[in-house]
């Protein structure tokens, strides 16, 4: 009798579904448009294309222009002054555009999701910025001491310990099993576990995030934030209170007020991602109703904030 095994996976987002249609390791098939390149994107509805032809097809379908005049290979220095080379790629799908930077001969991966109609030069800038931020942060601390350290992570004749705050990408393949990629280096679970013994007796919090989420940058720590809907609304009201006088917002405080409320909208985004969808939509509606009821002498308050709230809810819809 065959034993059926299943593997649990994290909540699927639309991009992960896209990954599934990218063929890996099976028989090579030619792209049906250029008839030259290997078809890497297989889609029963539209056909089998190479990435360039797929993007051309999608761009036409969505009515966006794609002039690919960006450098496909870019290099950046990390915090230790070591250069890393990345291959940049873009894939357009209905509703979103995926930009990836994958390290050549290394383990760093960065990704951003934008709208297909977004300016491509700006998209590249965002991706470069993310690479630089990510490279500026280090999870592993290199030991300068040449003595053998028992619970260090040993990689390429160097010894590393873990910082108390860190980030890594979870890597799994049936052949190689599971490992964690830290600072672009592959660390086995066993080595990671041993290095953790340096913190024996401490707590380890964790939060798994999509690759397209913000990365940790220099001098960053993780901060605990409540995503209880009542707490979010309470903080929203308190922030408004700094700028309102008898429910009136003067044009003088408009931009400061908007800026302060961005943080509250960030909390709404966390609720969307990690809490219940219904709660998030309800909090979004409450925020919008509250904003619309504010008297003001500006030209366009709270249009921008309303749009941001809608966007936050929409962006995080599965
Ligand atoms: Zn092609």
What does the model show?
There is one protein chain. The protein is of the alpha+beta class and 318 residues long. The chain folds into 3 domains: 14-135, no CATH class; 140-199, no CATH class; 229-315, no CATH class. It has helices at residues 14-20, 51-62, 120-135, 189-196, 229-241, 254-274, 277-292, 303-315; strands spanning 41-43, 47-49, 73-77, 83-93, 96-103, 109-114, 140-142, 153-155, 158-162, 169-173, 177-182, 185-188, 248-249, 295-296. The strands form 5 sheets. A 4-stranded antiparallel beta sheet has the order 3-4-5-6, with helices on both faces. α6 (254-274) packs antiparallel against α7 (277-292). The longest helix is centred in the C-terminal third of the chain and has 21 residues, at 254-274. The two termini are 37 Å apart. The structure holds zinc ion. Zinc ion binds next to α2. Zinc ion (ZN) is lined by residues 31, 33-34, 37, 49-50, 52-53.
Name some characteristics of this structure:
single chain, three-stranded antiparallel beta sheet, 3 domains, alpha+beta, four-stranded antiparallel beta sheet, 318 residues, binds zinc ion, 33% helix
């Amino acid at each position: 009798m065959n034993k059926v095994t299943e593997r649990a996976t994290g909540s699927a987002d639309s991009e992960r579904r896209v990954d599934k249609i990218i063929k890996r390791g099976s028989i090579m098939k030619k792209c049906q448009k250029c008839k030259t390149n290997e078809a890497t994107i297989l889609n029963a509805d539209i056909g089998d294309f190479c990435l360039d032809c797929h993007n051309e097809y999608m761009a036409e379908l969505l009515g966006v222009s794609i002039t690919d005049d960006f450098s496909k290979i870019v290099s950046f220095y990390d915090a230790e002054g070591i250069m890393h080379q990345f291959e940049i790629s873009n894939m357009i799908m209905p509703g979103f555009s995926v930009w990836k930077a994958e390290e050549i001969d290394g383990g760093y991966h960065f990704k951003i999701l934008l709208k297909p109609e977004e300016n491509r030069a700006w998209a590249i800038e965002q991706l470069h910025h993310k690479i630089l931020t990510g490279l500026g942060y280090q999870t592993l601390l290199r030991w300068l001491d040449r003595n053998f350290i028992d619970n260090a992570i040993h990689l390429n004749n160097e010894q590393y310990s873990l910082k108390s705050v860190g980030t890594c990408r979870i890597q799994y393949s049936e052949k190689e099993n599971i490992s964690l990629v830290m600072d672009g280096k592959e660390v086995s679970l066993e080595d990671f576990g041993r290095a953790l013994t340096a913190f024996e007796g401490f707590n380890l919090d964790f939060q798994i995030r999509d690759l397209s989420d913000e990365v940790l940058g220099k001098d960053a720590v993780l901060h605990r934030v409540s995503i209880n809907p009542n707490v979010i609304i309470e903080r929203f009201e308190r922030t408004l209170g700094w700028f309102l006088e008898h429910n009136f917002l003067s044009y003088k405080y408009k931009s400061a007020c908007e800026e302060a409320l961005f943080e509250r909208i960030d909390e709404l985004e966390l609720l969307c991602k990690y809490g219940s969808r219904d709660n998030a939509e309800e909090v979004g509606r409450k925020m919008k109703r509250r904003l619309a009821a504010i008297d003001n002498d500006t030209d366009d308050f709270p249009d921008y904030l309303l749009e941001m709230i809608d966007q936050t809810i929409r962006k995080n819809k599965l």
